[in-house]
Design brief:
The complex is a heterodimer of chains A (377) and B (386).
Chain A: E1 2-6, H1 7-17, E2 32-38, E3 41-47, E4 51-58, E5 60-63, E6 66-70, H2 71-80, E7 85-91, E8 96-101, E9 104-109, E10 128-131, H3 132-142, E11 157-163, E12 166-172, E13 176-183, E14 192-197, H4 198-207, E15 214-218, E16 225-230, E17 233-238, E18 257-262, H5 263-277, E19 283-288, E20 298-306, E21 310-322, E22 325-330, H6 331-339, E23 345-350, E24 357-361, E25 367-371, E26 374-375
Antiparallel strand pairs in A: 1-5, 1-7, 2-3, 2-6, 3-4, 4-17, 7-8, 8-9, 10-15, 11-12, 11-14, 12-13, 13-25, 15-16, 16-17, 18-21, 18-23, 19-20, 19-22, 20-21, 23-24, 24-25
Helix pairs in contact in A: 1-2, 3-4, 5-6
Chain B: E1 5-10, H1 13-21, E2 30-33, E3 42-45, H2 47-50, H3 60-66, E4 71-73, H4 77-94, E5 98-102, E6 105-109, H5 117-132, E7 136-141, H6 144-157, E8 167-169, H7 175-179, H8 192-200, H9 206-211, H10 214-221, H11 223-232, E9 248-259, H12 262-282, E10 287-295, E11 301-312, H13 315-329, E12 336-344, E13 351-352, H14 358-377
Parallel strand pairs in B: 2-4, 7-8
Antiparallel strand pairs in B: 1-6, 1-7, 2-3, 5-6, 9-12, 10-11, 10-12
Helix pairs in contact in B: 10-11, 12-13
Classes of the chains: A alpha+beta (377), B alpha+beta (386).
Chain lengths: 377, 386
């Protein structure tokens, strides 16, 4: 293999795929990046067997070939080369890759490409087509609510459902639930239900930075995989096996109190409360006060106390429809939900101190977030 | 360095509080506690009632039998806690080294205070009497053990139906001589069982224990024997544990014979977890870090700990974690000399409610029901299957 590639293109490509490298695997080749000539471009791939990322970068191919290069060594080296042409030439017999850039020449010991696990070649027929910007926003609004607890693998994923021209994503960690819907530009050829690891979606959102290209998503039947392609990047992930809990039934249908507040003001109050709450059990108390009469302004008092650091109390103006309530939440959960809400006002619906609270952006029916309160003992 | 420890015990505390609220009770035979027709027991009784043989923890029905004119006053625990807090605040005004051991008892380390112990004690008694209208007894000695026994001795010496207002000071060096004539069961760690075994050996007083060689006591009573030997000579090095330092709750047991059986060890861990859980709930606390302590027959001691994602006060969660830790360090059938469970990372029992965890809420309800029964009818009435 003999290839010439621009330093910035190579560095960007390595930056994208290196997130799927698994440096501490028992399979040494998984710590490497596959580098291969591919129809006039250079293909870079990495996988940890659960998540695989491939990126194609423009290159001048003088001689076809492929190998796998230790990711860390290769990335660190390329990042220090001058922004100019980089020449890669492989000695196939010794599996040594010579990397030349500027005035430096380097020989990196590689592992034969034969040992690299094959990544699926997608058939994009029947793929669901999505707008990148929408898709990234959906991931951002949902994936954070997924669990990191390996005891319940299903909850480490995001439920992705496609039905006609409707796409829904939902994630829950047992204490909170995030649901986001979106309309597809064109109806999907077949319905789809899959549990995609939250981590894969977060990586996808990171690599799909260009807002104008569409994302294609396809989950071939019976393969247990989902594949996303955006521009010159492909992300393939194993799906999580199992049944996602029926989340519809935990979304409260009614409330006794609906509190309208400025998203920014409530978020700021939560951030302040968290400074104290994080020292203890992360609990913030929300004292939602009912209005003295209809149409009167009211307020929410947010407070947190720590044995060690002290305490905080913030009053946020609100319009409270219904009865007052004193309810406690993990303030981190509340803050994280408010951070992904784009509308200027937010509604918090509650019915009791031990019943789920629902956070909804005002004027946007597509998103909702459910948080279970904390019981104050 | 010699320390000076003051032990303070409020005299017939609940009754004294009731008297401040209802002066007509003063000097009368009355008891605070549950009603006799509800299997209530005496929580506290006035000194006049004690003349009739009425005692704390006695069934109220029996108390009424002994003292037919006894006035029964229902307990008002919230009030007692408030008053107790006022007393403790007053003590903390003297020194921060205050260890509250129950609603009406505390230790103070007064070693570094300039005032002479006797003067300080008299001033304290007068202050609590004048400001809060409560009588108290005080014992002062070079350690907690002797100070507490001094208070008891002072209280017992009082005759008649007035509060004792005892003050007993044991100068440093006279601990053993002071304890020697006292009955053996006044010593900490001597319950009815140990007391019986001691009596069989012809041991009746603390002085009798002090005369036995330590290694004999260890042979007879295990680890507890070592404490018996030291305590009987008036030796006790435990320091004052102020509230901030109460950072863990634990239970441990040294077996009379090494245990190899997995099932019995797991049963012991579950029982200990139940007790830890009981203490957590009594103190309105929950913890996050579960610690296992295990000692092999050769005395090597290991501790292993695990941190839960959320604070707990539940015996099943504590027990599960402890058993898990034990399985990780111990081979099945391996002999164990001592085993114990502890919990730290204590805080208020705030818990995150779950979207689906119906199971843990069920378990919590079960535990609450069990506890209610135990409180009403005694600990052995019902227990978790072990």
């Amino acid at each position: 293999m003999k290839v010439t590639v621009l330093q910035e293109n190579l560095a960007r490509g390595l930056g994208i795929v290196s997130r799927a490298v698994s440096p501490r695997s028992t399979l040494p080749v998984l710590a490497n990046v596959l580098v291969a000539s591919d129809e006039g471009r250079l293909r870079l791939s990495a996988t940890n067997l659960e998540l695989g990322i491939t990126c194609w970068v423009p290159a001048r191919i003088e001689q076809e070939g492929s190998t796998t290069v230790p990711s860390r060594t290769f990335s660190d080296l390329v990042n220090t080369l001058p922004s100019d042409q980089v020449l890669l030439s492989l000695d196939a017999k010794t599996q040594t890759l010579n990397v030349r850039g500027g005035s430096s020449t380097n020989d990196i010991k590689c592992i034969d490409a034969q040992e690299f696990p094959p990544l699926p070649v997608p058939d994009l027929d029947g793929a669901v087509q999505l707008n990148v910007a929408d898709f990234r926003e959906m991931i951002q609004q949902v994936a954070f609510a997924a669990s990191t607890d390996e005891a319940r693998p299903v909850l480490m994923g995001v439920l992705v459902q496609v039905e006609k021209d409707k796409l829904t994503m939902a994630a829950a960690d047992g204490f909170r639930l995030s649901v986001r819907k979106a309309a597809l530009a064109s109806p999907a050829p077949a319905p789809l239900t899959a549990i995609v690891p939250a981590r894969a979606l977060v990586e996808l959102a990171r690599v799909a930075s260009d807002g104008n290209e569409p994302i294609y998503m396809v989950a071939p039947k019976g393969r247990g995989q989902v594949l996303f392609r955006v521009k010159d990047v492909e992300v393939v992930s194993q799906l999580i096996d199992g049944t996602f809990p029926d989340y519809q039934q935990i979304i409260p249908r009614k409330y006794t109190s609906r509190t309208l507040v400025s998203t920014a003001a409530l978020l700021k109050a939560c951030k302040q409360a968290e400074i104290f709450a994080r020292e203890g059990s992360n609990v913030a108390r929300l004292n939602i006060k009912s209005a003295s009469s209809d149409l009167q302004p009211s307020e929410v008092e947010i407070s947190a106390t720590s044995e060690e650091t002290g305490k905080n109390e913030t009053i946020v103006e609100a319009t409270v429809d219904g009865s007052g309530v004193l309810i406690a939440f993990n303030v981190k959960f509340l803050r994280e939900a408010l951070e992904v809400i784009k509308t200027p006002n937010v509604a918090l619906e509650t019915s009791a101190p031990n019943a789920p609270g629902v956070v909804r952006p005002v004027g946007d029916e597509q998103f909702l977030h459910v948080i279970m309160p904390m019981h104050l003992g | 360095m010699a320390r000076t420890i003051l032990h303070l015990d409020l005299d017939a505390f609940f009754c004294a509080v009731e008297e401040t609220r209802n002066p007509e009770l003063r000097g009368r035979a009355f008891a605070v506690g549950g009603r006799p027709d509800e299997r209530g027991v005496v929580a506290s009784c006035s000194y006049a009632a004690r003349q009739f043989g009425v005692r704390s923890a006695m069934p109220m029905a029996r108390a009424l039998h002994l003292c037919p004119g006894l006035i029964v006053v229902s307990s008002r625990h919230k009030l007692y806690s408030e008053i107790s807090e006022q007393v403790m605040a007053k003590l903390r005004g003297l020194t921060p080294l205050v260890e509250q051991i129950s609603i009406d008892e505390a230790f103070l380390d007064i070693s570094d205070l300039d005032e002479a112990p006797e003067r300080l004690a008299r001033r304290l008694q007068a202050g609590i009497r004048d400001e809060l209208h409560l009588p108290c007894s005080i014992g002062i000695a070079s350690n907690k053990l002797v100070a507490k026994i001094a208070t008891e001795v002072g209280k017992k010496a009082a005759k008649g139906d007035a509060p004792p207002f005892g003050l007993t000071i044991i100068p440093a060096g006279e601990e053993a001589a002071f304890l020697a004539p006292l009955p053996a069961d006044m010593l900490w760690g001597v319950g009815p069982k140990t007391s019986r075994r001691l009596a069989e050996l012809g041991i009746h007083t603390i002085g009798d224990i002090a005369k036995w060689p330590e290694n004999e006591l260890v042979r007879l009573f295990g680890e507890n024997g070592r404490d018996l030997a030291r305590h009987s000579k008036g030796q006790d090095e435990r320091s004052i544990v102020t509230e901030r330092e109460t950072k863990s709750i634990s239970q441990e047991e040294t077996f009379a014979r090494d245990i190899r059986d997995d099932k019995s060890l797991e049963k012991t861990l579950k029982e200990q977890s139940a007790e830890v859980s009981r203490q957590l709930r009594k103190n309105n606390l929950a913890g996050t870090t579960i610690k296992l302590k295990i000692r092999w027959p050769d005395f090597t001691t290991l501790t292993r700990q695990t941190t839960l994602p959320a604070p707990t006060d539940r015996e099943d969660e504590i027990g599960k974690a402890a058993i898990h830790l034990m399985r990780a360090v111990r081979k099945s059938g391996q002999a164990v000399r001592l085993i114990g469970v502890g919990i730290s990372g204590l805080g208020p029992p705030i818990r995150q409610l779950g979207l689906w965890n119906v199971e843990s809420e069920k378990s919590r309800k079960l535990q609450e029901a069990v506890e209610e029964l135990q409180e009403k009818y005694g600990r052995n009435i019902i227990n978790r299957g072990r």
